[in-house]
Amino acid sequence: MILKIVRWCILTFTFMFAIVVLGISGHLLAIRPTDYWRFAALAVAVSSLTILTFPVINISPERILGEAGWITIMWILWLSTGANATRAARAHFFAGACNSFSGYPNKICNEFKVVEAFAYINFIILLCYMIGLVVYEFTREEPQGTTETRQVKSQVQQRLATSGYTTNDTLGQQPSQA
């Protein structure tokens, strides 16, 4: 139950942040249609992927390892978006440049920073969520009554019985003499 709540919150926040990145990156692409910033195109693509896939993940039944695989791909894409935005901001503006400009260049500089910030926030959220999913998957206990568990248990008991061991014998003891 707690996994569903955490999952819903994380995917919803990432979805909302992706909408912000999509809007700002779309604006950055619109103001330079011929010579666009490549990081903005990547940000539009990654945020569109997030917007299209996360609602499906949120309502689908839990397939934890498959979900962790897709979340891994997404955090890598968000990391590359943030890194490209950082590189573009450093190439076009010097450190602290947003405060030294006024008007339109100040707005563009701040939009670079917003894309950069939200991309890194999404990266951190998804990385932590993926680590949590993997830890949860490998530490949770399986229900005792599953068919697969019963089949494996009966096969082990049969092999132990044919080799002379009983289920009460401990490892390292010799087979019982009948």
What are the defining features of this structure?
elongated; mainly alpha; single chain; 178 residues
Describe the structure.
The protein has six helices and no strands. It has 178 residues and is mainly α. Helix 1 (2-31) runs antiparallel to helix 2 (38-59), helix 1 runs antiparallel to helix 5 (104-139) and helix 3 (64-92) packs antiparallel against helix 5.
The separation of the N and C termini measures 51 Å
The helix tally amounts to 6
Report the radius of gyration as a whole number of Å.
26 Å
Largest sheet: none
Helix percent reads over 70%
What is the 3D form? elongated
Low-confidence stretches: none
Average per-residue pLDDT, rounded, comes to 83
Q: What share of the residues does DSSP label as strand, in percent?
A: under 5%
Written as H for each helix and E for each strand, in order along the chain, the element string is: HHHHHH
- Helix/sheet category: mainly alpha
Number of strands: 0
Topology of this protein?
Layout: H1 2-31, H2 38-59, H3 64-92, H4 97-100, H5 104-139, H6 147-163
